[in-house]
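During the first year of the project, the team set up a workflow for recording each protein of interest as an amino acid sequence followed immediately by a discrete structure-token representation. This format lets reviewers and collaborators read both layers of information side by side without switching files. As required by the reporting guidelines, we include two representative entries from the current panel. The first entry is reproduced here exactly as it appears in our internal archive.
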Amino acid sequence: MSTEFTVTETLDVKGLSCPMPIVKTKQAIDDLEAGEVLEVVSTDSGSMSDIQGWADGTDGVSLLEQDEGDDVYKHYVEKTD
């Protein structure tokens, strides 16, 4: 994992499948201030492409990094505005 950013909040969506990780991520991002970083922890392998696609298509967010561990997927999303 990179140390170029500081996690502001962690969202645990383990056990949830599409579309809930995206829905919960959007709700959590809406509560953050610009420049803050949300760590999303998921057990859904599809979240790797789902969160990437959501971030690419959503203004005001930037996907900083994704980490694929042992059945746990971590996503780091920054609210940019």
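The second entry, processed by the same pipeline in the following quarter, appears below.
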Amino acid sequence: MLLFLLPNLAVAANQLDSVRIWAAPESTRVVFDLTQVPKYDSFTLTGPHRLVVDIQDTGAKVNLDKIANNSKFIKKIRFSSPPKKGILRLVMDLTKPVKSSLFTLPPTAPYGNRLVVDLEDTDGRSSAEPTVRRSANQSSRDIVVAIDAGHGGEDPGSIGPSGMHEKRVVLEIAKRLARKVDSTPGMRAVMTRSGDYFVNLNKRSELARNSKADLLISIHADAFTSPQPNGASVWVLSMRRANSEIGRWLEQKEKHSELLGGAGEIIQNTDNEQYLAMTLLDMSMNSSMAISHSIAGDILRDLDSITHLHKRKPESASFAVLKSPDIPSILVETGFISNPGEERLLSNGNHQEKLANAIYKGVLRYFQSNPPADTLLAKSSSTKHSVKRGESLSIIAQRYSVSVNSLKRVNNLKSDVVRIGQTLVIPGA
């Protein structure tokens, strides 16, 4: 079929250069790379399910059989006979009915003109149901940390002088951070993306909320138009953006219960629902922003020991991912990928590990000092041990039936050496 199309479109104004498929767990993005802005139309067919895309005055030199496809929605993308001369018809053979959204994107390095097709499940249900993991006796839960690796898939983020993509660097740091959180008794990590695909910015905070996250950390790498700026920084939600988001929530009465839990159900259908919701949301926002600012300060202290700081205090901004007035949220800029020296550092595995550890230590220190009342960490944090003469780390670990590694991890110890009088936090057994 490809051989049939090409002669008729040899002098077409536009050309399809490549097709890329970015598969996420619950959605798929298909990108058609074109030489010019496309004029297009689309429609769906059933029996079997298909999505047909017609692009006007366009030719193609791409072999669709060689496209990497790991999407659970797409069986195959193929060419088909056009309805009339001058149209390039592409057909997506689908595994099930999907919701499709098509739009164009202008050129931005490293891509040119693009036609984007987003596919989502028509039932709109998440494949992962929200869970709250509890300890064996069911009396306490884990602290949940949502970790968001910025950008992904079609969105590379900033690009360094040597071509390093921000999306790849921050995903590596996010994975390292998640492993540290998951290895800590009483803590659990939830990643908004675990691979090279794009997640809608609204979806990121929604995933955190559905996972009942106690904290959302978004990881990025900064960039500037000149190569000189360098250093890490930590950002929190600006008051202006927080008030704007609260206003948006207040207008959606059906979401009050989602945001306020049981309190939302109690105030529904009361004469003063709007005012009660506003009061509760305001209290929730003030608490979340105070927690965010405190954790941001803790993380900056640890980052300062392993890298240069661009901003020495937490900064506030209207980042879209920091939009949840009910969830403490911070954005960590790990360095300037536009700075050649920091680009080399950010691509280095050892430096990525140091960055992940600095973020982890700041988060752990905060939650050790301020554990939510119903968590395992709240119980374990009340157990402390003062080192006595003749005691070693292994003896203390044996006494409390915990591992030496967990003792070192919770107390940020770099060696097995302890000193007389030193106070150790005993992790939950």
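For the second entry, the following points were noted during internal review. Residues 273-303 form the longest helix (31 residues). The mean pLDDT is 84. Both points are flagged for discussion at the upcoming steering committee meeting.
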